[in-house]
Amino acid sequence: MRPIAISCGEPAGIGPEIALAAWQTLRGEVPMVWIGDPRHLPQGTDWVGVADIADAATAPAFPVLERDFGPPRVPGTPDPRHAQGVIDAIKDAVSLVQSGACSALCTAPIHKQALIDGAGFAYPGHTEYLAALAGRDSVVMMLACEMLRVVPATIHIPLAQVPEQLTAATLTDTILITHAALIRDFGIPAPRLAVAGLNPHAGEGGKIGQEELDLIIPTLAALRAEGLSIAGPLSADTMFHPAARAQYDAAICMYHDQALIPIKTLDFSGGVNVTFGLPFVRTSPDHGTAFDIAGTGRADATSMIAALRMAAQMATARAQG
């Protein structure tokens, strides 16, 4: 298997630490190459520069595609002078995946304010930047663990804006992209989707809101007519207990917290962020930079390990498809 490209993320966060810990755990199982400044790795790290990406799989130490970010890393204190290096590492990783040198992309957490301050970063986050690099207008964020897959139809917007942003086109695109990705990247031939309502009790027949009647129900009916297996709209408060989860392969939720609260409750450390709709596989650990523990040796690499394993599985499924 070709290596997975890991973009370094925010140097002052836990990204360098969890990338190294993941390699130590997955060495011999999942080949990878880290793109960043090796001076930002934990002190005493045994690393080796990789001239040929193909050599990453057999590297005798942590394989690094070396970049010079300038100033040293100060754990817990982001430095805007690193911003362009962080952005370029993401761009370089995408190029390696698109060229076929790497099989997938796994991104370490970034700090958006540092990127804005240091390089005028013009994107809300990783996902939007990756979509721009790939030339894609519609992408979908999925959060996944062994017990649950969830997809929010709207993401990082104020709750008051959700009813306005939630359109038939948005919901249709989210469901179709998710359906196609479950087939292609997860090997599920006939995905079963469960769709949450927007309002409590899925609107209760219009007594607690009209969005289900006016928007969600007609959209789901049109998609069922195309052959998709969809349950809903369902009351979100009854969708996530074990018996309910057994009835679907992924849950489509209407807004950020409706999707993320259940998965982070079920598996806070092991969740993986996946971007659907890109022409390549991209995963990420489902947490942030954790400045408060950076450099202390307390960082938990569970989510990064899960993200790399999932990226490898998805890349294999896509190649075999």
Automatic annotation (TrEMBL):
Binds 1 divalent metal cation per subunit. Can use ions such as Zn(2+), Mg(2+) or Co(2+). It is an enzyme of class 1 (oxidoreductase). Pfam families: PdxA. Keywords: Cobalt, Cytoplasm, Magnesium, Metal-binding, NAD, NADP, Oxidoreductase, Pyridoxine biosynthesis, Zinc. GO terms for biological process: pyridoxal phosphate biosynthetic process; pyridoxine biosynthetic process. A divalent metal cation binds at H156, H201, H256. Its cofactor is Zn(2+); Mg(2+); Co(2+). It is found in: Cytoplasm. It catalyses: 4-(phosphooxy)-L-threonine + NAD(+) = 3-amino-2-oxopropyl phosphate + CO2 + NADH. Pathway: Cofactor biosynthesis; pyridoxine 5'-phosphate biosynthesis; pyridoxine 5'-phosphate from D-erythrose 4-phosphate: step 4/5. InterPro entries: PdxA, PdxA_fam. The keyword Zinc applies. GO terms for cellular component: cytoplasm. Substrate binds at H126, T127, K264, N273, R282. Homodimer. Belongs to the PdxA family. Catalyzes the NAD(P)-dependent oxidation of 4-(phosphooxy)-L-threonine (HTP) into 2-amino-3-oxo-4-(phosphooxy)butyric acid which spontaneously decarboxylates to form 3-amino-2-oxopropyl phosphate (AHAP). HAMAP family: PdxA. This is 4-hydroxythreonine-4-phosphate dehydrogenase. The lineage of its organism: Bacteria, Pseudomonadati, Pseudomonadota, Alphaproteobacteria, Rhodobacterales.
